[in-house]
Amino acid sequence: MEGGLTGFALLLPWLAGALWVRAGWPDAPPGVWPLASGYGYVLGMLAVTLLLRVQAALGFPPDAAGPLLVLTVLASGGAWRVWRQVGSARRSGPTPRRFGEAWLEQSRWQQFLFVLLLAWLGWRLAGLAQEIWWRPLFPWDAWTTWTVRPKVWSELRQWAPFVDPQRWVNDPAGALYTIEAWNYPDTVPLLALWPTLAFGAWNETVANLPWFGAALALGFGFYGQARRWGAPPLIALLSAGMLLSLPILDTHVALAGYADLWMAAVFGLAVIAFFQWLWGGERRQGVLAVLLAAACPLIKLEGAVWLLLFLPALLAVWLRGWPLRLLAGGVAVLGIGWWAVGGVAFGVPGLGELQLRPQLIQIPFLGRFNLGYRGTWEPVLKNFFVLGSWHLFWYLMLAAAVAAVPGLRAERRRRIVAVFIGSCLSALFVLFFFTDAQYWAEEYTSINRVFLEFVPAFMFWVVTVFVPPRPAREEERPMEPSPALDRSSGGEHPSV
């Protein structure tokens, strides 16, 4: 009984999310169901965490019944909307592509390779599922950071507060709890808590099951978006398989409990939807990008910084010509002035002191970072190009960077995508070469975990470099080019 209810609690958010995402595409374009499955799982599980937060805010104890009821209503509404929209599209427009039509268009050898690759990928994922099922909670950060709170909440059946150590020491009633990462976001702990509420008791295997779902969602979402971009089924599956077979990613699935896999799924799928919106101006992709990007700070503290990485690319979308140059000049002048006066420092009410100085950065909740070039390339290069955590991924990135150069001059969209990729790499360079995070690289620890959060986005960029985008069909009017990108005189693409 407990196992059936646990499975229902994991599948219902997936179903509700997938149906509502699927409802956005009544014309059934290529890859829409895998896309809906991937994005739907992530959005559905994030919705579960919001429902649990509402439950706590209203004073109710942790329980699965209320969220399950809401999710049932959402799933029913999504099913009704899909049925209505798909039926309306069939009556009023051209006949949509049938499921499996792209499969039939492949040659026999492509079909054979597709089945072979899919079977191998399924075998690999089955092995990862067994690791989760057989292995108790193992990762160190899971013990100390991410699963302490859900275990306490599950055992006590109440929302026990976690506070800073000073408040915990001074609490005479003993009703408060503390951990070193007491101020980390609650989303990942709530994701681990959710299946245990349906199970009825704390169980480490059950708590880790959402991590396997996150890997599946990343694979489904990536494949669906690759098909939406224009990749043939075999190429889309090959690229998704390359992503899901990365040793460092598989480690985070098998040794479930870290937040980095969820950060990779949320941020990666947000960036992929952003690229699709950037290329085609499709509002549905823009909505997916906004929803998932907004969730990044709810996963990990650095998610707030990753969210800011969208800003340079968005400015390149909205501005062009002299306004863009004027903004760049203004930023340069402000940067020089900031350096000349030694930075700024001020208090933020309710948060603490904010310091932005050439020697250090202190941001409430994120921490204090001493600045200064101290990095060395040896551990970075060895992690990426010698050791086995990444297979040949970074060699593929180098090849894509070389292949992308000719297209930068020809298409403004590719330049904007390059701005985003450059912003990500610049942020990671500053992190590992100008802060104490360099020790993470020298000790061969968190450097791979942090880069994992960007790799799904980088992998999709590789797909966009080597696979030409699919031209919009007549019945896909929402894919019309974005006015922000294509307004120009004489029909030419203007320069950035």
Overview of this protein structure:
This protein folds into 2 domains: 2-94 and 102-258, no CATH class; 321-491, no CATH class. Mean pLDDT is 86; it is low at 473-484 and 486-496. With 496 residues, the chain is mainly alpha-helical. Helices cover 68% and strands 4% of the residues. A hairpin with a 3-residue loop joins strand 1 (344-348) and strand 2. A 4-stranded antiparallel sheet has the order 1-2-3-4, with no helix packed on it.
List keywords for this structure.
globular; four-stranded antiparallel sheet; single chain; 496 residues; mainly alpha
Give a nutshell description of this structure.
The chain is mainly alpha-helical and 496 residues long.
The number of helices is 24
What's the mean pLDDT score? 86
Tally of DSSP β-strands:
4
Order of helices and strands: HHHHHHHHHHHHHHHHHEEEEHHHHHHH
Largest sheet: 4 strands, antiparallel
The global form is globular
Structural class: mainly alpha
How much strand content do the residues show?
under 5%
Measure the end-to-end span. 60 Å
Write the layout of secondary structure elements.
Elements: H1 2-22, H2 32-57, H3 65-92, H4 101-105, H5 108-134, H6 140-146, H7 148-156, H8 165-169, H9 187-199, H10 204-229, H11 233-244, H12 247-254, H13 260-280, H14 283-299, H15 303-308, H16 310-318, H17 322-340, E1 344-348, E2 352-356, E3 360-363, E4 367-370, H18 377-385, H19 393-410, H20 412-434, H21 438-442, H22 446-452, H23 455-466, H24 483-486
Antiparallel strand pairs: 1-2, 2-3, 3-4
Helix pairs in contact: 1-2, 1-3, 1-9, 2-3, 2-9, 2-10, 5-10, 5-11, 7-9, 9-10, 10-11, 10-13, 10-23, 13-14, 13-23, 16-20, 19-20, 19-23
